[in-house]
Amino acid sequence: MSFIKEFKEFAMKGNVMDLAVGVIIGGAFGKIVTSLVENILMPVIGIFTGGANFNDSFFLLNTSKGSSFKSLAEAKAAGAPVFAYGAFIQSVIDFLIIAFCIFLLVKFMNKLTKKKEEAPAPAELSTQEKLLVEIRDELKKSR
């Protein structure tokens, strides 16, 4: 089998296509969550922390380039070494929201799968059916 034919076979399998769709949707979902965190959650958290903007929270590691930067972007533009812990906190919150949403999705899918797998309980046999089963079993024994 040629390399190209083998690759085509691999790429056209259902699981690979499902994975590709999942990655694309996941990327879009990540942007939505990032927007939720940056534009809705972090400003609310900023209110409770005295107006602190986590995205601009940083420590200067070396003050040789200056020490009075008003924002993280300004410090980075000046080439100052910074420890940008605010961006890290924001990324952790993004991750926790995405992980929670995926947990809920998997839990929902497992619930749907269990319902499909559960076969309906066999109906109670009527008196005639019980009698027929007994007759069948006796005939099998006598042979």
From TrEMBL:
GO molecular function, one term: mechanosensitive monoatomic ion channel activity
Keywords from the UniProt entry: Cell membrane, Ion channel, Ion transport, Membrane, Transmembrane, Transmembrane helix, Transport
Domain of life: Bacteria
InterPro entries attached to this UniProt entry: Mechanosensitive_channel_CS (IPR019823), MS_channel (IPR001185), MSC/AndL (IPR037673), MscL_channel (IPR036019)
Location(s) in or outside the cell: Cell membrane
GO cellular component: plasma membrane
Spans traversing the lipid bilayer: 16-33, 82-106
Membrane topology designation: Multi-pass membrane protein
Keyword Ribonucleoprotein: no
Main location: membrane
Keyword Transmembrane helix: yes
Gene3D superfamilies in alphabetical order: Large-conductance mechanosensitive channel, MscL, domain 1
PROSITE patterns (alphabetical): MSCL
Quaternary structure and interacting proteins, as annotated: Homopentamer.
NCBIfam families noted in UniProt: mscL, PRK00567.1-4, PRK13952.1
Function noted in UniProt: Channel that opens in response to stretch forces in the membrane lipid bilayer. May participate in the regulation of osmotic pressure changes within the cell.
Family in the record: Belongs to the MscL family.
Protein's name in the database: Large-conductance mechanosensitive channel
Gene this chain is encoded by: mscL
